[in-house]
Design a protein that fits this description.
With about 180 residues, the chain is mainly alpha-helical. It has a domain of about 70 residues. About 70% of the residues lie in helices and about 0% in strands.
């Protein structure tokens, strides 16, 4: 049988063990915790700097894209002017618009047209298309973009004005090609 340790001495031994463990944990926290906090702070700063750099790059790219879109539109207008000048001189340009001549245009697929309009324009812009065609926007039913686009195309089709709608879409989105 093991020698008996009085209860007070046993409790004291347990308390001493807990104190040693607590001191070891405190020492480890003192040594390792500040290093980890510094590491996380450094990592957070690096990520914040990287995020700021990416945001600046995104803004610069957006500005450059806007500039290029404007330049492309200017060049497209210039090409159209040159083609018109060549035609006025009685010549036929070797290179020109992709669009077929008026009267030879392929029939427009209303489903494709409404999907294109829904992809290119938001609800307010679809209302603007209707307005520009002299159609009161409240005549076009629907709240969602695709519904309003479909109803605008159907309205124009019932009144045989789809060609006007297509031309207006081309004017507002020069880069658009029926897909």
């Amino acid at each position: 049988m093991p020698p008996e340790i009085p209860v007070a001495e046993g409790a004291l031994a347990i308390l001493a063990t807990i104190a040693v463990i607590g001191a070891a944990v405190a020492w480890m926290a003192h040594v390792y915790l500040p290093a980890n906090v510094r590491k996380w702070n450094r990592l957070t700063m690096e990520l914040s700097d990287r995020l700021a750099t990416l945001e600046n790059d995104r803004q610069r790219d957006h500005t450059e894209m806007q500039r290029l879109r404007i330049r492309l539109t200017e060049l497209e207008i210039g090409v159209r002017v040159l083609i018109a000048q060549v035609k006025r001189l009685g010549e036929s340009p070797d290179w020109g618009d992709d669009a077929p001549p008026p009267g030879d245009a392929a029939p427009v697929d209303n489903m494709v047209l409404h999907r294109n309009i829904a992809a290119l324009f938001d609800v307010d812009e679809i209302d603007d298309l209707a307005f520009r065609l002299g159609i009161p926007p409240d005549e076009i039913e629907g709240k969602r973009r695709d519904t309003r686009a479909r109803n605008l195309v159907l309205y124009a089709d019932r009144r045989e004005r789809v060609d006007e709608l297509v031309e207006l879409v081309r004017q507002l989105r020069p880069e658009w090609r029926m897909q």
